[in-house]
Amino acid sequence: MIPKATNRIGLAPARKRAGGQAQVEFLLSVLFVILLIFGILELILLVYTYNVLADSAKEGVRYGIVHGTNSATCSGPGGGSVSCADTGATNVQTAVTNYARYSLHDTTQMTVTVSYPDSSSAVPSRVQVQISYPYQPFFGLGWPSVTVRAAAAGRIVF
After folding, report:
1. φ, ψ at 19 (rounded to 5°)
2. The pairing of beta strand 146-155 with beta strand 126-135
């Protein structure tokens, strides 16, 4: 009877143990790649949220600049002898949330702040829209919740 080939310590040759090592290395590599892909997707969703907020703020500014004191549906504080019915600029806020509603974000969590730095909605005063939104990570993975902010400004032209 011929004994099995063993090394000095009595272990099987290294060739027979290498199969398990390759499986462990493959598993660790696949886990790293999967975590990397999920991290990239999470970052893409965060950038998408910022783009939605920035575009919504721009849409609010567009609404504000064409609904000054010369408009039949005036928004803002008014100016001179003209008084606007919408002094709180709720129409501008509505334009922002209506635009963001189609992005699959929860618009009830958005904080929209409309301001008129020149204290008037007459031509050529300015209007500013600022939005903040608490971003909740989609996959989790230990990412913290962050507040995404975007802003836009423009001059009233009508």
Report:
1. -60, -45
2. antiparallel
Q: What is the dihedral of CA 113, 116, 119, 123, to 10 degrees?
A: -150
- pLDDT per position as a tens digit, 22-69: 889 999 999 999 999 999 999 999 999 999 999 999 999 999 999 988
By residue range, what is the domain housing residue 136? 19-155
Cut 0.70: pTM above it: yes
* DSSP states of 27-44: HHHHHHHHHHHHHHHHHH
In a domain, 69, yes or no: yes
8 in a structural domain: no
Helix (H) or strand (E) holding 99: helix 90-101
Q: Is residue 31 part of a domain?
A: yes
Judge whether 6 lies within some domain.
Answer: no
Q: What pLDDT is recorded for position 85?
A: 86
Q: Which CA distances in Å does 132 have to 23, 53, 110, 113?
A: 47, 8, 6, 9
**DSSP 8-state class, residue 138:** S
Q: What is the pLDDT of residues 89-111, one digit of tens each?
A: 999 999 999 999 999 899 999 99
Instruction: Give the total number of structural domains in the chain.
Output: 1
126-135: strand order across its sheet: 111-115, 126-135, 146-155
